[in-house]
Specification:
Largest sheet: 4 strands, mixed
CATH architecture of the largest domain: Up-down Bundle
Number of strands: 4
Oligomer: single chain
Strand content: 5-15%
Strand order of the largest sheet: 2-1-3-4
Radius of gyration: 17 Å
Helix content: 40-55%
CATH class of the largest domain: Mainly Alpha
Shape: globular
Number of helices: 8
Distance between the termini: 36 Å
Structural class: alpha+beta
Number of domains: 2
Length: 225
């Protein structure tokens, strides 16, 4: 059986899990501590960080590392669903937004908020730094406003159909939602989209994730919050 090495609150791992579920492929989850990967994981993943997919193909196995590579591989090989837009322009927009989440959003937001709220908590080496959190939250609102602006003009982030762009954005936002960092009532357009994605069967398993004793807010598992 194919295996996905992952960490529950890693946005990249969440993207891979959703994409695998969307393509209706069976897979086994193997958790990886991103700060102390074990020897087994190090032997199969040169990058040393999740996500990493071991897929079973004709004649053997293939190793694919990184959320973008895994998701596009699944989208290109799936015969049961399409996660890529039909037109070249929409596919370009999808890839632009995937890059936005992987680079700009990660640098502007996740490097501040998730580092302070999650990494420091789990490693127990120091308390969150309020000025850093404040700066990350200011950056976050800029991104939320931009996503809302896109969704006022489209059914989904990259156009009129669900795609890898929605998976990437949802994966990142759901991690922030896990730690209660998004004020949904202040972002109603984005909330409607988030609820729509949250209701997909492929996303349901993520809502049961728990990490290091951390408890998400009550609305996190609620589909109608």
């Amino acid at each position: 059986m194919r295996v996905l090495y992952h960490w529950p609150l890693d946005p990249g791992s969440r993207q891979a899990r959703i994409a695998l579920a969307e393509t209706k492929l069976k897979f086994k989850l193997e958790p990886v501590n991103p700060w102390a990967p074990d020897a087994t994981f190090a032997s199969v993943c040169a990058e040393g960080v999740p996500p990493c997919l071991i897929d079973v193909i004709s004649g053997g196995k293939v190793t694919i590392s990184g959320a973008r590579a895994i998701c596009e591989y699944l989208a290109e090989t799936s015969k049961k669903t399409s996660l890529l837009p039909d037109s070249a322009t929409d596919r370009a927009e999808m890839r632009r937004l995937c890059d936005w989440m992987a680079n700009k959003f990660t640098d502007d937001v996740q490097a501040y908020i998730m580092h302070e709220r999650v990494e420091k908590t789990l490693l127990g080496n120091e308390a969150p730094h309020p000025p850093t959190l404040r700066e990350g939250r200011e950056h976050l609102q800029f991104h939320l406003d931009y996503f809302s602006w896109l969704l006022e003009r489209r059914d989904y982030l990259a156009g009129h159909r669900f795609s890898l762009a929605d998976i990437a954005c949802f994966a990142h936002l759901s991690c922030l939602d896990f730690v209660g960092e998004i004020r949904w009532r202040d972002n109603p357009t984005l909330k409607d989209w988030y609820q729509k994605i949250k209701s997909r069967p492929s996303v349901q398993p993520l809502l049961g994730d728990r990490v290091g004793g951390m408890i998400p807010p009550r609305h996190y598992r609620d589909l109608d919050f």
